Amino acid sequence: MTSLSFLGFRENGNSATMAVDLKNLCELRFLLLDGSLSSENITEFIEKLPQCSSSKLYYLILNDNSMTGIMPQVMGHLTSLTGLSLSNNSISGSISPGLQNFTSLEDLFLSSNHLSGQIPLLPRGLEILDVSMNFLSGHLHFGAPNIEVLILSSNKITGPIPEKFCELQHLSDLDLSNNSFAGELPICSSMPSLRSLLLSNNEFSGKFPSLIQSLSNLTLLDLSWNKFYGTLPIWIGHLAELRFLDLSHNMLYGSIPVNITHLRQLQLLNLSFNNISGSIPQPLSKLMAMAKTHIPTTNVPDWYVGWENNEFLDSLSAVTKHQQHKYAAQSILYIVGIDLSVNHLTGGIPDEMASLDGLRYLNFSRNCLRGNIPKNIGPMELVESVDFSWNSLSGEIPASLSDLTFLSVLDLSYNNLSGRIPSGRQLETVYDSNPTMYDGNNNLCGPPLQRNCSSGNSDPKHGNEKASGENSESLFFYFGLVSGFAVGLWAVLCALLFKKP
Protein backbone atom coordinates (compact mmCIF):
# COMPACT_ATOMS: atom_id res chain seq x y z
CA MET A 1 0.00 0.00 0.00
CA THR A 2 2.72 2.41 -1.04
CA SER A 3 0.24 5.25 -1.64
CA LEU A 4 -1.03 5.18 1.95
CA SER A 5 -0.77 8.63 3.56
CA PHE A 6 -2.85 8.26 6.76
CA LEU A 7 -2.79 5.28 9.13
CA GLY A 8 -4.76 5.50 12.36
CA PHE A 9 -5.04 2.55 14.69
CA ARG A 10 -5.78 4.27 17.98
CA GLU A 11 -7.00 3.05 21.38
CA ASN A 12 -7.13 -0.64 20.63
CA GLY A 13 -6.33 -1.89 24.09
CA ASN A 14 -2.55 -2.25 23.67
CA SER A 15 -3.10 -5.59 21.99
CA ALA A 16 -1.32 -5.20 18.66
CA THR A 17 2.27 -5.90 17.70
CA MET A 18 4.15 -4.27 14.85
CA ALA A 19 4.77 -7.45 12.85
CA VAL A 20 5.69 -5.65 9.61
CA ASP A 21 7.82 -2.66 8.79
CA LEU A 22 6.65 0.45 6.95
CA LYS A 23 9.92 1.28 5.24
CA ASN A 24 8.38 1.50 1.78
CA LEU A 25 5.46 3.79 2.69
CA CYS A 26 7.08 6.89 1.23
CA GLU A 27 3.74 8.76 1.06
CA LEU A 28 2.86 8.16 4.73
CA ARG A 29 2.20 11.51 6.42
CA PHE A 30 0.30 10.63 9.63
CA LEU A 31 0.87 7.55 11.81
CA LEU A 32 -1.37 7.42 14.88
CA LEU A 33 -0.87 4.34 17.06
CA ASP A 34 -1.50 5.63 20.59
CA GLY A 35 -2.99 3.16 23.03
CA SER A 36 -2.76 0.25 20.63
CA LEU A 37 0.64 -1.46 20.71
CA SER A 38 1.79 -3.97 23.27
CA SER A 39 5.16 -3.39 24.91
CA GLU A 40 7.73 -2.70 22.22
CA ASN A 41 11.28 -1.39 22.02
CA ILE A 42 11.32 2.19 20.78
CA THR A 43 14.54 1.76 18.78
CA GLU A 44 13.28 -1.32 16.97
CA PHE A 45 10.02 0.46 16.18
CA ILE A 46 11.74 3.56 14.78
CA GLU A 47 13.76 1.33 12.43
CA LYS A 48 10.49 0.07 10.88
CA LEU A 49 9.34 3.55 9.85
CA PRO A 50 9.66 4.92 6.29
CA GLN A 51 13.27 5.44 5.29
CA CYS A 52 12.75 7.03 1.91
CA SER A 53 15.07 9.75 0.72
CA SER A 54 12.15 12.16 0.65
CA SER A 55 10.20 11.07 3.75
CA LYS A 56 6.85 12.83 4.19
CA LEU A 57 6.01 11.58 7.70
CA TYR A 58 4.71 14.69 9.43
CA TYR A 59 3.05 13.41 12.59
CA LEU A 60 3.91 10.37 14.72
CA ILE A 61 1.83 9.58 17.83
CA LEU A 62 2.84 6.62 20.03
CA ASN A 63 1.42 7.62 23.42
CA ASP A 64 0.27 5.07 26.04
CA ASN A 65 2.02 2.05 24.56
CA SER A 66 4.35 0.98 27.41
CA MET A 67 7.30 1.30 25.03
CA THR A 68 10.70 0.53 26.50
CA GLY A 69 14.32 1.04 25.55
CA ILE A 70 16.57 4.05 25.20
CA MET A 71 15.46 6.99 23.11
CA PRO A 72 17.29 6.76 19.75
CA GLN A 73 20.08 9.29 19.38
CA VAL A 74 19.94 9.17 15.57
CA MET A 75 16.65 9.47 13.68
CA GLY A 76 17.89 10.95 10.41
CA HIS A 77 15.05 9.49 8.36
CA LEU A 78 12.43 11.40 10.42
CA THR A 79 13.66 14.97 9.94
CA SER A 80 10.42 15.93 8.18
CA LEU A 81 8.38 15.48 11.38
CA THR A 82 6.30 18.42 12.58
CA GLY A 83 4.84 16.49 15.53
CA LEU A 84 6.29 13.72 17.69
CA SER A 85 4.38 12.36 20.69
CA LEU A 86 5.82 9.57 22.88
CA SER A 87 4.12 10.40 26.19
CA ASN A 88 3.24 7.84 28.87
CA ASN A 89 5.69 5.13 27.96
CA SER A 90 8.79 3.70 29.68
CA ILE A 91 11.44 5.20 27.43
CA SER A 92 14.74 5.97 29.15
CA GLY A 93 18.03 7.64 28.29
CA SER A 94 18.60 11.24 27.36
CA ILE A 95 16.82 13.44 24.85
CA SER A 96 18.74 13.27 21.60
CA PRO A 97 20.75 16.43 20.80
CA GLY A 98 20.04 15.51 17.17
CA LEU A 99 16.52 16.89 17.61
CA GLN A 100 18.01 20.30 16.95
CA ASN A 101 18.34 19.25 13.29
CA PHE A 102 14.58 18.65 13.04
CA THR A 103 13.96 22.07 11.53
CA SER A 104 10.28 21.29 10.84
CA LEU A 105 9.46 20.02 14.34
CA GLU A 106 6.76 22.12 16.03
CA ASP A 107 5.18 19.82 18.67
CA LEU A 108 7.21 17.49 20.93
CA PHE A 109 5.50 15.48 23.69
CA LEU A 110 7.73 13.25 25.85
CA SER A 111 5.96 13.42 29.22
CA SER A 112 5.63 10.53 31.69
CA ASN A 113 8.69 8.54 30.70
CA HIS A 114 12.04 7.76 32.37
CA LEU A 115 14.14 10.30 30.52
CA SER A 116 17.18 11.74 32.29
CA GLY A 117 20.04 14.14 31.69
CA GLN A 118 19.86 17.75 30.59
CA ILE A 119 17.42 19.24 28.10
CA PRO A 120 19.43 19.83 24.90
CA LEU A 121 19.14 22.82 22.61
CA LEU A 122 15.81 22.59 20.86
CA PRO A 123 14.79 23.10 17.22
CA ARG A 124 14.28 26.79 16.53
CA GLY A 125 10.84 26.18 15.07
CA LEU A 126 9.52 24.30 18.12
CA GLU A 127 6.21 25.68 19.44
CA ILE A 128 5.10 23.10 22.04
CA LEU A 129 7.37 21.10 24.38
CA ASP A 130 6.03 18.84 27.12
CA VAL A 131 8.66 16.79 28.97
CA SER A 132 6.88 16.72 32.34
CA MET A 133 7.12 13.81 34.79
CA ASN A 134 10.59 12.57 33.90
CA PHE A 135 13.99 12.67 35.64
CA LEU A 136 15.55 15.52 33.69
CA SER A 137 18.13 17.60 35.55
CA GLY A 138 20.68 20.36 35.11
CA HIS A 139 20.05 24.00 34.27
CA LEU A 140 17.55 25.26 31.75
CA HIS A 141 18.66 26.62 28.36
CA PHE A 142 16.26 28.14 25.86
CA GLY A 143 16.94 27.41 22.22
CA ALA A 144 13.49 27.82 20.68
CA PRO A 145 12.60 31.51 20.27
CA ASN A 146 9.11 30.73 18.94
CA ILE A 147 8.04 28.43 21.78
CA GLU A 148 4.42 28.90 22.83
CA VAL A 149 3.85 26.12 25.38
CA LEU A 150 6.68 24.97 27.66
CA ILE A 151 5.86 22.25 30.20
CA LEU A 152 8.79 21.05 32.32
CA SER A 153 6.95 20.14 35.52
CA SER A 154 7.86 17.25 37.85
CA ASN A 155 11.53 16.87 37.01
CA LYS A 156 14.78 17.67 38.84
CA ILE A 157 15.80 20.82 36.98
CA THR A 158 17.85 23.29 39.01
CA GLY A 159 19.19 26.83 38.84
CA PRO A 160 17.51 30.13 38.01
CA ILE A 161 15.33 31.01 35.05
CA PRO A 162 17.75 32.48 32.49
CA GLU A 163 17.43 36.09 31.35
CA LYS A 164 16.65 34.87 27.82
CA PHE A 165 13.25 33.92 29.14
CA CYS A 166 12.22 37.53 28.50
CA GLU A 167 12.85 37.05 24.77
CA LEU A 168 10.08 34.44 24.45
CA GLN A 169 7.48 36.85 23.16
CA HIS A 170 5.21 34.06 21.85
CA LEU A 171 5.12 32.09 25.12
CA SER A 172 1.54 31.54 26.30
CA ASP A 173 1.79 28.71 28.85
CA LEU A 174 4.75 28.02 31.16
CA ASP A 175 4.74 25.24 33.74
CA LEU A 176 7.93 24.76 35.79
CA SER A 177 6.22 23.35 38.88
CA ASN A 178 7.66 20.54 41.02
CA ASN A 179 11.33 21.10 40.26
CA SER A 180 14.30 22.61 42.10
CA PHE A 181 14.46 26.00 40.41
CA ALA A 182 15.86 28.73 42.64
CA GLY A 183 16.62 32.44 42.72
CA GLU A 184 14.52 35.40 41.69
CA LEU A 185 12.46 35.68 38.53
CA PRO A 186 13.96 37.81 35.74
CA ILE A 187 12.54 41.28 35.18
CA CYS A 188 10.92 41.42 31.76
CA SER A 189 9.51 44.55 30.18
CA SER A 190 6.65 42.78 28.43
CA MET A 191 5.40 39.28 27.69
CA PRO A 192 2.02 39.99 26.10
CA SER A 193 1.12 36.40 25.22
CA LEU A 194 1.67 34.72 28.60
CA ARG A 195 -1.63 33.54 30.06
CA SER A 196 -0.64 30.77 32.50
CA LEU A 197 2.40 30.80 34.79
CA LEU A 198 2.81 27.80 37.11
CA LEU A 199 5.93 27.86 39.30
CA SER A 200 4.70 25.98 42.38
CA ASN A 201 6.83 23.73 44.56
CA ASN A 202 10.28 25.14 43.79
CA GLU A 203 12.87 27.20 45.67
CA PHE A 204 12.12 30.58 44.08
CA SER A 205 12.75 33.51 46.40
CA GLY A 206 12.80 37.29 46.52
CA LYS A 207 10.06 39.86 46.77
CA PHE A 208 6.76 39.39 45.00
CA PRO A 209 7.92 39.25 41.33
CA SER A 210 7.62 42.56 39.49
CA LEU A 211 7.67 40.56 36.24
CA ILE A 212 3.98 39.75 36.80
CA GLN A 213 2.96 43.40 36.50
CA SER A 214 3.72 43.31 32.76
CA LEU A 215 1.65 40.16 32.11
CA SER A 216 -1.52 41.91 31.02
CA ASN A 217 -3.18 38.74 29.66
CA LEU A 218 -2.34 36.50 32.61
CA THR A 219 -5.23 34.19 33.48
CA LEU A 220 -3.65 31.62 35.79
CA LEU A 221 -0.90 32.38 38.32
CA ASP A 222 0.41 29.74 40.71
CA LEU A 223 3.44 30.67 42.84
CA SER A 224 2.59 28.38 45.76
CA TRP A 225 5.16 26.46 47.82
CA ASN A 226 8.08 28.81 47.27
CA LYS A 227 9.95 31.41 49.35
CA PHE A 228 8.54 34.66 48.01
CA TYR A 229 8.23 37.38 50.64
CA GLY A 230 7.04 40.96 50.94
CA THR A 231 3.61 42.54 50.63
CA LEU A 232 1.04 42.01 47.94
CA PRO A 233 1.42 44.94 45.53
CA ILE A 234 -1.50 47.24 44.80
CA TRP A 235 -1.05 46.70 41.08
CA ILE A 236 -2.23 43.09 41.41
CA GLY A 237 -5.73 44.51 41.11
CA HIS A 238 -4.90 45.66 37.54
CA LEU A 239 -4.51 42.12 36.14
CA ALA A 240 -7.98 42.25 34.67
CA GLU A 241 -7.87 38.79 33.04
CA LEU A 242 -6.74 36.92 36.15
CA ARG A 243 -9.01 34.00 37.05
CA PHE A 244 -6.88 31.72 39.23
CA LEU A 245 -4.50 33.13 41.85
CA ASP A 246 -2.61 30.77 44.15
CA LEU A 247 0.09 32.34 46.36
CA SER A 248 -0.16 29.88 49.24
CA HIS A 249 2.76 28.52 51.28
CA ASN A 250 5.09 31.50 50.92
CA MET A 251 6.30 34.21 53.30
CA LEU A 252 4.06 37.08 52.25
CA TYR A 253 3.04 39.59 54.90
CA GLY A 254 1.10 42.84 55.23
CA SER A 255 -2.57 43.28 54.45
CA ILE A 256 -4.65 42.16 51.48
CA PRO A 257 -4.98 45.15 49.14
CA VAL A 258 -8.59 46.25 48.83
CA ASN A 259 -8.33 46.57 45.07
CA ILE A 260 -7.82 42.81 44.77
CA THR A 261 -11.62 42.90 44.62
CA HIS A 262 -11.27 44.66 41.24
CA LEU A 263 -10.45 41.27 39.72
CA ARG A 264 -13.94 40.65 38.43
CA GLN A 265 -12.89 37.49 36.57
CA LEU A 266 -11.31 35.88 39.65
CA GLN A 267 -12.61 32.40 40.48
CA LEU A 268 -9.87 31.12 42.80
CA LEU A 269 -8.14 33.14 45.52
CA ASN A 270 -5.68 31.17 47.65
CA LEU A 271 -3.45 33.10 50.07
CA SER A 272 -3.22 30.38 52.73
CA PHE A 273 -0.13 29.61 54.81
CA ASN A 274 1.46 33.07 54.76
CA ASN A 275 1.90 35.82 57.35
CA ILE A 276 -0.83 38.09 56.04
CA SER A 277 -2.52 40.33 58.60
CA GLY A 278 -5.24 42.98 58.67
CA SER A 279 -8.87 42.43 57.81
CA ILE A 280 -10.66 40.68 54.96
CA PRO A 281 -11.49 43.28 52.27
CA GLN A 282 -15.11 44.40 52.58
CA PRO A 283 -16.30 44.88 48.96
CA LEU A 284 -16.29 41.15 48.17
CA SER A 285 -19.37 41.55 45.99
CA LYS A 286 -17.11 42.93 43.25
CA LEU A 287 -15.69 39.44 42.70
CA MET A 288 -18.43 38.84 40.18
CA ALA A 289 -17.05 35.57 38.79
CA MET A 290 -17.73 34.00 42.20
CA ALA A 291 -21.44 34.74 41.88
CA LYS A 292 -23.78 32.08 40.56
CA THR A 293 -25.15 34.31 37.81
CA HIS A 294 -21.70 34.58 36.21
CA ILE A 295 -20.86 30.86 36.07
CA PRO A 296 -21.09 29.80 32.40
CA THR A 297 -23.64 27.11 31.64
CA THR A 298 -24.01 26.88 27.88
CA ASN A 299 -21.70 29.47 26.35
CA VAL A 300 -18.13 28.41 27.12
CA PRO A 301 -15.82 31.44 27.48
CA ASP A 302 -13.10 32.06 24.91
CA TRP A 303 -10.24 31.66 27.41
CA TYR A 304 -11.43 28.16 28.25
CA VAL A 305 -11.78 26.82 24.71
CA GLY A 306 -8.03 26.84 24.19
CA TRP A 307 -7.45 24.81 27.37
CA GLU A 308 -10.29 22.35 27.20
CA ASN A 309 -8.29 19.51 25.63
CA ASN A 310 -4.83 20.39 26.93
CA GLU A 311 -3.64 17.70 29.32
CA PHE A 312 -0.64 19.82 30.30
CA LEU A 313 -2.88 22.04 32.44
CA ASP A 314 -3.89 19.23 34.79
CA SER A 315 -1.62 20.53 37.54
CA LEU A 316 -3.97 23.07 39.13
CA SER A 317 -5.14 21.97 42.55
CA ALA A 318 -7.08 23.29 45.53
CA VAL A 319 -7.63 22.14 49.11
CA THR A 320 -11.32 21.40 49.56
CA LYS A 321 -13.08 19.12 52.01
CA HIS A 322 -9.84 18.82 54.03
CA GLN A 323 -8.12 17.23 51.02
CA GLN A 324 -6.07 18.45 48.10
CA HIS A 325 -7.84 17.86 44.80
CA LYS A 326 -6.33 18.17 41.35
CA TYR A 327 -8.43 19.66 38.59
CA ALA A 328 -8.22 18.52 35.00
CA ALA A 329 -8.46 21.07 32.21
CA GLN A 330 -12.01 19.91 31.57
CA SER A 331 -13.14 20.86 35.09
CA ILE A 332 -11.07 24.00 35.62
CA LEU A 333 -14.15 26.03 34.74
CA TYR A 334 -15.82 24.97 38.00
CA ILE A 335 -13.06 25.89 40.46
CA VAL A 336 -14.65 28.65 42.55
CA GLY A 337 -13.23 29.21 46.02
CA ILE A 338 -11.46 31.38 48.59
CA ASP A 339 -8.78 30.07 50.95
CA LEU A 340 -7.25 32.52 53.45
CA SER A 341 -6.42 29.95 56.11
CA VAL A 342 -3.35 29.93 58.39
CA ASN A 343 -2.60 33.65 58.44
CA HIS A 344 -3.01 36.43 61.02
CA LEU A 345 -6.23 38.01 59.77
CA THR A 346 -8.29 40.01 62.25
CA GLY A 347 -11.70 41.66 62.27
CA GLY A 348 -14.90 39.96 61.20
CA ILE A 349 -16.20 37.95 58.27
CA PRO A 350 -17.81 40.50 55.90
CA ASP A 351 -21.56 40.13 55.43
CA GLU A 352 -21.01 40.77 51.71
CA MET A 353 -19.45 37.33 51.45
CA ALA A 354 -22.97 35.91 51.13
CA SER A 355 -23.31 37.60 47.73
CA LEU A 356 -20.69 35.16 46.37
CA ASP A 357 -23.31 32.47 45.90
CA GLY A 358 -21.24 30.62 43.29
CA LEU A 359 -18.53 29.62 45.77
CA ARG A 360 -17.79 25.90 46.02
CA TYR A 361 -15.46 26.10 49.01
CA LEU A 362 -14.52 28.64 51.67
CA ASN A 363 -11.68 28.37 54.19
CA PHE A 364 -10.85 31.05 56.79
CA SER A 365 -9.49 28.66 59.42
CA ARG A 366 -6.59 29.36 61.81
CA ASN A 367 -6.73 33.14 61.89
CA CYS A 368 -7.75 35.67 64.56
CA LEU A 369 -11.21 36.49 63.21
CA ARG A 370 -13.87 37.75 65.62
CA GLY A 371 -17.56 38.57 65.50
CA ASN A 372 -20.46 36.49 64.23
CA ILE A 373 -20.87 34.12 61.33
CA PRO A 374 -22.91 36.10 58.75
CA LYS A 375 -26.58 35.34 59.24
CA ASN A 376 -27.27 35.58 55.49
CA ILE A 377 -24.99 32.67 54.61
CA GLY A 378 -27.98 30.60 53.43
CA PRO A 379 -28.05 31.85 49.78
CA MET A 380 -24.57 30.33 49.18
CA GLU A 381 -26.35 27.18 48.14
CA LEU A 382 -23.56 25.76 45.92
CA VAL A 383 -20.92 25.72 48.65
CA GLU A 384 -19.59 22.26 49.44
CA SER A 385 -16.93 22.97 52.07
CA VAL A 386 -16.83 25.63 54.82
CA ASP A 387 -14.00 25.82 57.37
CA PHE A 388 -14.02 28.59 60.01
CA SER A 389 -12.18 26.58 62.69
CA TRP A 390 -9.55 27.92 65.11
CA ASN A 391 -10.67 31.54 65.25
CA SER A 392 -12.44 33.64 67.91
CA LEU A 393 -15.89 33.75 66.33
CA SER A 394 -18.74 34.21 68.79
CA GLY A 395 -22.52 34.33 68.90
CA GLU A 396 -24.94 31.73 67.63
CA ILE A 397 -24.64 29.53 64.55
CA PRO A 398 -27.01 31.02 61.94
CA ALA A 399 -30.07 28.90 61.27
CA SER A 400 -29.63 29.55 57.52
CA LEU A 401 -26.55 27.28 57.58
CA SER A 402 -28.93 24.34 57.37
CA ASP A 403 -30.10 25.60 53.96
CA LEU A 404 -26.75 24.70 52.33
CA THR A 405 -27.93 21.51 50.67
CA PHE A 406 -24.62 20.81 48.84
CA LEU A 407 -22.57 21.13 52.03
CA SER A 408 -20.47 18.05 52.73
CA VAL A 409 -17.75 19.46 55.02
CA LEU A 410 -18.27 21.97 57.83
CA ASP A 411 -15.75 22.80 60.54
CA LEU A 412 -16.58 25.39 63.22
CA SER A 413 -14.37 23.90 65.92
CA TYR A 414 -12.33 25.92 68.44
CA ASN A 415 -14.20 29.21 68.44
CA ASN A 416 -16.38 30.91 71.06
CA LEU A 417 -19.74 30.03 69.54
CA SER A 418 -22.74 29.65 71.85
CA GLY A 419 -26.43 28.75 71.85
CA ARG A 420 -28.44 25.94 70.33
CA ILE A 421 -27.06 24.22 67.20
CA PRO A 422 -29.47 24.60 64.25
CA SER A 423 -31.31 21.48 63.20
CA GLY A 424 -31.41 20.14 59.66
CA ARG A 425 -30.89 16.89 57.82
CA GLN A 426 -27.89 18.22 55.88
CA LEU A 427 -26.10 19.32 59.07
CA GLU A 428 -26.80 15.94 60.64
CA THR A 429 -25.24 14.19 57.63
CA VAL A 430 -22.19 16.46 57.75
CA TYR A 431 -21.81 15.80 61.49
CA ASP A 432 -21.86 12.04 60.94
CA SER A 433 -18.82 12.32 58.68
CA ASN A 434 -17.00 14.84 60.93
CA PRO A 435 -18.13 14.54 64.58
CA THR A 436 -15.43 17.01 65.72
CA MET A 437 -16.90 19.93 63.78
CA TYR A 438 -18.23 21.63 66.95
CA ASP A 439 -15.33 20.81 69.31
CA GLY A 440 -13.86 23.61 71.40
CA ASN A 441 -17.11 25.61 71.63
CA ASN A 442 -18.10 24.99 75.25
CA ASN A 443 -21.26 27.09 75.08
CA LEU A 444 -22.88 25.22 72.21
CA CYS A 445 -25.71 22.90 73.15
CA GLY A 446 -28.44 20.71 71.78
CA PRO A 447 -28.34 17.79 69.34
CA PRO A 448 -26.14 16.31 68.05
CA LEU A 449 -24.09 17.21 71.17
CA GLN A 450 -24.82 15.50 74.47
CA ARG A 451 -24.95 18.90 76.18
CA ASN A 452 -28.55 19.87 76.98
CA CYS A 453 -29.65 23.45 76.59
CA SER A 454 -30.84 25.24 79.74
CA SER A 455 -33.59 27.80 79.43
CA GLY A 456 -30.88 30.43 79.14
CA ASN A 457 -29.23 28.62 76.24
CA SER A 458 -32.41 27.60 74.50
CA ASP A 459 -34.02 31.03 74.58
CA PRO A 460 -31.53 33.89 74.74
CA LYS A 461 -34.27 36.52 75.24
CA HIS A 462 -35.86 34.89 78.30
CA GLY A 463 -32.45 33.91 79.54
CA ASN A 464 -31.46 37.55 79.62
CA GLU A 465 -34.66 38.43 81.49
CA LYS A 466 -33.95 35.73 84.07
CA ALA A 467 -30.37 36.85 84.50
CA SER A 468 -31.61 40.44 84.90
CA GLY A 469 -34.08 39.35 87.61
CA GLU A 470 -31.40 37.43 89.47
CA ASN A 471 -29.13 40.47 89.34
CA SER A 472 -31.93 42.69 90.76
CA GLU A 473 -32.53 40.28 93.64
CA SER A 474 -28.83 40.21 94.46
CA LEU A 475 -28.62 44.00 94.46
CA PHE A 476 -31.70 44.25 96.76
CA PHE A 477 -30.19 41.75 99.19
CA TYR A 478 -26.87 43.55 99.46
CA PHE A 479 -28.60 46.96 99.73
CA GLY A 480 -30.68 45.70 102.66
CA LEU A 481 -27.61 44.17 104.31
CA VAL A 482 -25.61 47.41 104.11
CA SER A 483 -28.59 49.51 105.25
CA GLY A 484 -29.23 47.29 108.25
CA PHE A 485 -25.59 47.43 109.26
CA ALA A 486 -25.56 51.24 109.05
CA VAL A 487 -28.75 51.60 111.18
CA GLY A 488 -27.47 49.15 113.80
CA LEU A 489 -24.12 50.88 114.05
CA TRP A 490 -25.80 54.29 114.46
CA ALA A 491 -27.97 52.95 117.32
CA VAL A 492 -24.94 51.64 119.21
CA LEU A 493 -23.09 54.92 118.77
CA CYS A 494 -26.08 56.90 120.02
CA ALA A 495 -26.37 54.70 123.12
CA LEU A 496 -22.70 55.19 123.92
CA LEU A 497 -22.99 58.92 123.32
CA PHE A 498 -25.82 59.48 125.86
CA LYS A 499 -24.78 56.89 128.44
CA LYS A 500 -23.46 58.50 131.64
CA PRO A 501 -20.02 57.40 132.86
UniProtKB/TrEMBL annotation:
Transmembrane helix in keyword set: yes
Gene3D superfamilies membership: Ribonuclease Inhibitor
Protein name: Leucine-rich repeat-containing N-terminal plant-type domain-containing protein
GO cellular component: plasma membrane
Topology term for the membrane: Single-pass type I membrane protein
Family: Belongs to the RLP family.
InterPro entries (UniProt xref): Leu-rich_rpt, Leu-rich_rpt_typical-subtyp, LRR_dom_sf, RLP23-like
UniProt xrefs under PROSITE patterns: LRR
Transmembrane segments: 475-498
Subcellular compartments: Cell membrane
UniProtKB keywords: Cell membrane, Glycoprotein, Leucine-rich repeat, Membrane, Repeat, Signal, Transmembrane, Transmembrane helix
One of the Pfam families matching this protein, by short name: LRR_8
SUPFAM superfamilies linked to this entry: L domain-like (SSF52058)
Organism per entry: Panicum hallii var. hallii
Domain of life: Eukaryota
Main location: membrane
